[in-house]
Amino acid sequence: MVKKILSVALCVAVLVFIYAPILLLVVYSFTDANVIGRWEGFSFDLYAQLFRSEEIMRILLNTVVLALVAATLSTVLGTAGAICIFYSKKKIAAPIKGISQVPVINAEIVTAISLALLFSMVALYRTYFSLIVGHMVLCTPFVVLSVMPKLKQMDPNVYEAALDLGASPTTALFKVVIPQIFSGVLSGFMLSITLSLDDYIVTAFTKPKTFDTISTYVYNAVKNGTNSSTPALRALSALIFVVMIAAVLIVNLRARKKKEGAK
Amino acid sequence: MTELKKAKTSSPLKKEEKIIEMVGVSKTFDDTAAVDNIDLYVRKGEFITFLGPSGCGKTTTLRMIAGFDIPSAGKILLNGKDITDLPPNKRPINTVFQRYALFPHYNIYDNVAFGLKLKKVPVTYVNDKGETYTKLQKLTSKEIDEKVKNALAVVDLEGFEKRSVSTLSGGQQQRVAIARAIVNEPEILLLDEPLGALDLKMRKEMQIELKEMHKKLGITFIYVTHDQEEALTMSDTIVVMKDGQIQQIGTPASIYNEPANAFVANFIGDSNLFNGTMVGEKLVRFCNRNFTCLDDFEKNEKVDVVVRPEDIRMTSPEQGMLRGKVISVVFKGVHYEITVLVGKTEVVIQNTESRSVGEEIGLDILPDGIHIMKKEFTVNKYDGYITKKNTVVFGDGEFECDVTQLYPGSRLDEDGYLITAEGEQLDLTDTDVAVEVGLTDIEISDNEDEGGARGHIVSIIYKGDHYQVIVRTEENEEDYVLDTEYLWNENDFVSVKIAPEKIRMTLKQESAQK
């Protein structure tokens, strides 16, 4: 019994350790104070400010559009790459697969500096092009990583069966292969969105000067410590947190339903 | 859809009607030859089976006909036209895969309709000016509906259109796979071990159904299996393969009754295989007795003799051509399988009558029950045993040998015991071993005391750059076949020398289990 209480207590402690900062943020998003840590009574003021601020709304839109564009392009590129690796000869496929995964473990700051260097050499530094390519570099390896296992699970004869029934390789790819690996493609896309949404380092090194995403905007706004010039960002952060939690819950619930359905 | 059910007029097949022809086809994967220079043709409308153990190249051959693998060398012709490099979607050939390969994201209807929806057929129109012209057109959904319905009817799956793949049993899925292939009205249907994943009862049922379907559709079936019974039951023609090469092509009956070599005999049906020697015109010697046979081979040629278990008759011990003791009787349903020990050889008999274990019986083999095959002679094989002195006795002789090869990593101690790699001390006296000696590893000498065995030279055949000599011992008529550069005379009395390191020995199964 004591053991049980202890183990529960430990779990709670770990969770508190992880969630305390975020919870604090959520709590303080309901008070109208410039400095974090001061409680000036409960209010929805920050939320009102948030939605009234045209600048923040514009930046929010920037971030979302960037994430969608970068994730879509990365998904196309990553899926094509994974299929290419999968159908290559083993001697070629193994090294390519290895190399394609290096960016995953590479320090992001290294990636960011290399990108900055490359684009300044070709005079595309700090353009939308460099920004999108930067995010694609970030996301594509993860798409490859999530599509690859689905390809391996696929019955290799299914593609051949499609060819056998008269489909051209392209038709077979779109009608048979893609539908079967679609869950992998989708999870690669979702992963890319989250990666792109909260990326700061690569964005900071590749973005056009006048362009901001939430990450870069928040960073600049709170650069001087807790004394934030725009307290509405607390409300924004709290909202992002809630949205993410909701997204995770929905994905998990759907997965569980599917599992039960399969039984 | 009458086209599907329309049977071809079943005129006797002419040789000219070759639908598929493979000429010198090879396929190598990373330096290993999966298929090695094969030539074969498939006649229009026949049910042909590629039969062989796994890894024999049968599936690769099928995949080359389908177009999934491109031959490394050689040509494939379809109706006389070269299709070697034609992609699978351009070939009028459809495949049924072993693991069905249905599209799991489509329902049964869409699976079967997959090929039809992609198909374009020429349609003839008459325009305003009265000119006719043809246009490639997709099938209308009504036409597709009808064809799908008919194909599902052929495989007895009417009403399954809306079901999803995962709700079907293995047998049903395989039927869908067959429907999906035949709905395209291919000229050839390829079946890659299609019943391999089904249980025995279902397999038997599907065998009959496939055979009926073949009759009904009138198209060419090319079937791949490792199950010899399946091949014998279903095929018009069987191609037996081993190590990427064709061993024999023939009707089921000819392959069963006249196997081309020991491998085919062993692989198809149960058989007794004996080492024999031709001793006269249509006279073969095995089991220490001469038998009249129907096959003619050169005198003194070493041959493989096949006797099917059902071709041996049991008689009283006095009357039989051979005499032996029953060592086991197994009831097999239709017949008994009786194993008889004749001398040192086990002979298996299938008969509806039983005998009791230990009983002495006689065996008769009629000339037409004996099939003789040319021996691909590469090595001398003997049964032997180890003596106290760690020499080996075989072929009526005694030879020095290296007994440590029987146990990897072992050595001999000073008392002559064998110490195994694990440190166990073994006395090898009377251990039964299988002995192999290469043809070039045997020397003969005029000095009678020099070698381990003695005998007369009974045959000398000139083989281009050397002579192949057979020395036969007197006691048990054991033969030593050897290649030598020197010319000897027939009937010379010689002794046989074999260097100890050239005697290859392996433990016999029974003693290995001790």
Structure description:
The complex is a heterodimer of chains A (263) and B (514). Chain A has 263 residues and is an all-alpha fold. Chain A contains twelve helices and no strands. In chain A, helix 1 crosses helix 12 and helix 7 crosses helix 9. In chain A, 30% of the residues are buried. The model of chain A has no long low-confidence stretch (mean pLDDT 88). Chain B is α+β, with helices and mostly antiparallel strands and 514 residues long. In chain B, the strands form eight sheets. In chain B, strands 6-9-10-3-11-12 form a six-stranded mixed beta sheet, with helices on both faces. Chain B is elongated. The chains are: A mainly alpha (263), B alpha+beta (514). The A-B interface holds A 155, 157-158, 160-169, 171-172, 175-176, 179-180 and B 66-68, 87-89, 93-95, 97-99, 101-105, 114-115, 118-119, 180-181, 184.
Summary keywords:
heterodimer, A: mainly alpha, B: 514 residues, alpha+beta, Rossmann fold, OB fold (Dihydrolipoamide Acetyltransferase, E2P), five-stranded antiparallel β-sheet, 35 strands
